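> Could you send the GPI alpha-1,4-mannosyltransferase I, catalytic subunit prediction when you get a chance?

Sure thing. Input:
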Amino acid sequence: MKAYAAELSLVSSHIGDSKYVCCVMDASVLLYITFTEPPLHCDQMWSPWALHGESPYNRSTYRYTPLLAWMLLPNIYATPHFGKLLFVTCDVLSGVLLYHILCLRGLSSDAACRFCALWLLNPLPIGVSTRGNAEALLSLLVLATLLCLELKRFFMAAFFYGLSVHMKIYPVTYALPIALYISTHGKLEAQKRGVFRMLQRLFNKELVLFAAVAGAVFFWLTLAFYCLYGWDSLHETYLYHLTRRDIRHNFSPYFYMIYLTAESQWSLVLGLVSFLPQLVLVLLTSLAFHADLPFCCFLNTAIFVSFNKVCTSQYFLWYLCFLPLILPRLRLSKKQGVGLLLLWFAGQGLWLMPAYYLEFEGHNTFVYIWLAGLLFLFNNSFIMVQIISHYIPETVQQRKKTE
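Output:
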């Protein structure tokens, strides 16, 4: 009966999101309001030519895998709102996966539903998906990978992981923790035997299977689109993001440096050096927390987003989808939790104020935006430290029960 109630709540959430899409459609028609992300516009504009061999990279703003545009062909042949409905469906399916993962991690059905509601009823993923942004699809693929790993279905986990890395490059930050998790079977005791012993364990049947399948999925999809669209498919989908220098204002602490050095001969070097903090911190968290894979993925993603060269609000979904899996083991008081939440929102609010005056009033507020970005990075770092300090990993809880 509880499982039925859980499924009913998920269906209700889907209906609610779909109604929201319909309301937005009506408002767009009646008030002439644009409520669609530019990426979806790009996909819609290219989709009619897809079957005639045209390249999506003829548009200078297209920076995604062609697979996404192929998936959105029904936008042309069925309804222009297909993409939004697809992404809303991905949001709800992500809630289903979260529910099953939470149950596998020991929560009751009622408790799992309550934590899933933090994702399903969150206005940020609802707003992003109903605008036509594909981040919900990535969340679904990543959570499917975690669920299959929890169930020890390594072949399917590898398939979803390879597909997620093909869609966007950021899930590559999960490669090391996944490898260590599979090799140690998620046991804290194996982690404490030393780094060298962990590296020895990397060569086992399950991990070789995972690497082979994930690598094959990524390789063959990438090769197929390379054969169709040439070097542009590799450069615009992957390599562009390594050398990207976005001078438009965003939450990144590097944005002002990139803006000032855009024409400098050192611009490319500075852009590549900015990856070093991400690389070092992701390596450390992977080695330290891989035994609790959802927690490790949450930290790696939060670090990647916070220290990235480009950081926008939609990137927050990359780590917020892990939050329902983290909160049950987080030992924070209500006062502390509310305080950290307000700190996160305050950092965004302080950034948005000078950004508004720059974008809409034309005032030169670049320095204030940069300082607000630095403050937001400090806030995020402080929040991550507090989460690490008050988190009880699954393996530690299990060990205490056995004692």
